[in-house]
Amino acid sequence: MASFSAQPVVAVLGPTNTGKTHLAIERMCGHSSGMIGFPLRLLAREVYDRVVAIKGKERVALITGEEKLVPPNAQYFLTTAESMPISPGLLAGGDKQGDRDYAFVALDEAQLGADPERGHVFTDRLLRARGREETMILGSEALRPMIRALVPDAEIIGRPRFSTLTYAGATKLSRLPPRSAIVAFSAEEVYAVAEMLRRLRGGAAVVMGALSPRTRNAQVAMFQAGEVDYLVATDAIGMGLNMDVAHVAFASLRKFDGRRARRLTISEMAQIAGRAGRHQRDGTFGTLALEGGSSARFEDEEVDAIEAHHFPPIDHLYWREGAPSLASVDALIADLERRPDRPVLRAAPQAIDLSVLKRLAEEDWVRERARGKPMIARLWAACGLPDFRKTGPEPHSRLVSRIFRHLSEGSGHLPKNWFADELARLDSVQGDVETLADRIAGVRTWAYIAHRADWLADADHWAERTRALEEKLSDALHQRLTQRFVDRRTSVLMRDLGAKGGDLALPVKVDDEGIVTVDGEAIGRLIGFRFKPDHLARHGDMKRLMAAAERRLGSELASRARQLAADEDGHFSLATDAGRPVAIFWRGDVVARLEKGRTLLTPRIRLHRALDPLSPADHAGVEQRLAAWLEGRIQRELKPLARYFEAARDPACPPSLRALLAPLAEAGGITARAGIASAIEHLDREGRSRAERLDVKLGTIDVYSPTLLKPEPTRWRIALFAAAEGQLMPELPVPGAVSMATPADTAACEAMVRAGYRALGAQMLRVDLVERLARIAHDSRSGRAPFTPDPGLATSLGLRHASFAQLMLALGFRAASPAKGEIAAESWVWKGKREPRKERPARPGNAFGALAELYPGMPSRNAAR
């Protein structure tokens, strides 16, 4: 066993959150050179970045199994415990740093010497790593007896915790306070908890020892920046990783230590719970209450010990010879299996490097090649390759065997093509979290190999290649972790809902396309005044999205209200989609609906509920602008109808004319003549002339306004009827259609009648065409003698025989009986008593020609045939 150095040693012992690591950094930076060994690559990298900020990159080195940044003039070394260069030849490949001495040396988390798997490494460093001027051992207070026994001359300094750590009991996942870390002890459990937090609280950052420093730093950065309020981690966070955690919740109090599942020791519980609180800010710890009320529970004595920082002292450390003999393979194995000669030390359980060595020693070719100290050192270095992928001794030994075979033949270098092919197999960012994590573990294996200076012909090149590939995969893994376990929108919403009285003013923006972002996260789109949540949001987030929009969009809605009140008429429109309520649109979206008013032409405007958050003044401004636009459009599109209403209420208008106009106005400008026949009979010549000037057409069957039969006035009239009757908008006739099939639905048929169509059995014909046909028919007859209408009339209007017959009957004709022996002819006889009033002289030509002359767009007779 190595002898102890006579150099002074200081042991700084105490619970977590005592600033021990910070003290070591300060002390090291006060010396001309120094080295600190850490339990985790992640922690070494974190401290490396801190020391670089103090001393500059050219003076600081980082050495881990998979990463080596050693500037030529490096004076300060941050390493993992396994990679501490404390004696010549200790580093695989005979790294020259092993010949260096350091003014200051420190070992962090030295109590890990009691760990069965890695304890022998920490014990060896505790015994042999010494600084030229100062040595510092950092660890738990439970390590005090071991320091007294193994380094009796060491000065022990106790460091009290800066803040109070309090037990908070069991807490449901949905009730965890912000800035909480949940600790689990398997990747599966970490993922399950993170997935639940995503659904409940917007997600969590994930930290595990298997993550690369780049991925871990990116995840922690999310947590530190407040993008997520929760962190799910393995017990890796207990090893000094500095994070702003207020509460630590244990998902379990049991872990698998590589051999068996066991309950955490009190020291392990305290190490993890101690992450809560920072400097002088108090922290809490507890357990995670699972569904059904069951959860891991701390015993009372465990809680008392953790709160008081009183832990059972460590009564032994694991040891293995740190500088074994390289005289032969058997001597090497014998030294590694030798038992310690001190009562407080125990032989370390067989680690995977020794297990692989013993397997290879059984191979004749290995013993044949492993002759002489240099080759035995190379064999032992190859066996030291960590099993990053956790494949187990047998598969891992096969990889080591192949590596040693190459190292022990030819140039002593690994084949470039083999190394390149292995990296190429891992060079893919496709796959899920587990797949990417496994690839990163594979890359760590080859990165470890690339940093053995004499294993590759161009080690620096391959070290850079593996570094770049690990960063590439790490970025992809961070992205996958974020996609899988972080719903940033929900996280933002939870913070928004947690704001009381507007204390948390999350920035809200609305871009030119109406996309609404809260703190940079898109939550939906503002269409007009309506907020539409993101369609990709989960159902449970919808209420939160709406609530966030209501609180944060007030100023934007007010701005839009003022814009509407000052906008031009061209940006408003009447929405008359069939099957939907009649509405007013502004810039392409609904702002109000029409309801029954005092008259057909004065409907009530009801603003859409999306405008409810507006102030009373803005609300009134919108209503006034919409009312002004609606009144103007009604006067423009329905001018004759407006004049009917006005004249019907005008005392100066003759009563006989008012008797005609009042029902005509209520009917929307079109009504059957039979219903107002009495009023028509009482009209004198002046009344008829005045009615004609008001655009009233006294037809044979219907009374109507020709202007109101145009498509746009028709649309407005039907819309106003639907609003007045509280109905949805019916189908409108095809613009320009003169005939159509009679709708089977009563309401639809009524809408067509209001649009200006008269039912003729199975078909309907527009009333102005009915009147034209009536005139042509009367012009074609001679008194009461039978006559045959031109058959082109019906064909040109699309009327079938039955519908045309219905029209002729409605006009006052009857079918003539055919002469004896003749085939039935389509002849008609006038049977009315009163001759139709001639409005204009008959036009020359046949009836079809007269009709075509009245309607220039009508097809020719030949075309009709």
Automatic annotation (TrEMBL):
<keyword id="KW-0378">Hydrolase</keyword>
<dbReference type="GO" id="GO:0016787">
    <property type="term" value="F:hydrolase activity"/>
</dbReference>
<dbReference type="InterPro" id="IPR055206">
    <property type="entry name" value="DEXQc_SUV3"/>
</dbReference>
<dbReference type="GO" id="GO:0005524">
    <property type="term" value="F:ATP binding"/>
</dbReference>
<dbReference type="Pfam" id="PF22527">
    <property type="entry name" value="DEXQc_Suv3"/>
</dbReference>
<dbReference type="Pfam" id="PF00271">
    <property type="entry name" value="Helicase_C"/>
</dbReference>
<dbReference type="InterPro" id="IPR027417">
    <property type="entry name" value="P-loop_NTPase"/>
</dbReference>
<dbReference type="InterPro" id="IPR001650">
    <property type="entry name" value="Helicase_C-like"/>
</dbReference>
<dbReference type="GO" id="GO:0004386">
    <property type="term" value="F:helicase activity"/>
</dbReference>
<keyword id="KW-0067">ATP-binding</keyword>
<keyword id="KW-0347">Helicase</keyword>
<dbReference type="InterPro" id="IPR050699">
    <property type="entry name" value="RNA-DNA_Helicase"/>
</dbReference>
<keyword id="KW-0547">Nucleotide-binding</keyword>
<feature type="domain" description="Helicase C-terminal">
    <location>
        <begin position="168"/>
        <end position="337"/>
    </location>
</feature>
<protein>
    <submittedName>
        <fullName>ATP-dependent RNA helicase SUPV3L1/SUV3</fullName>
    </submittedName>
</protein>
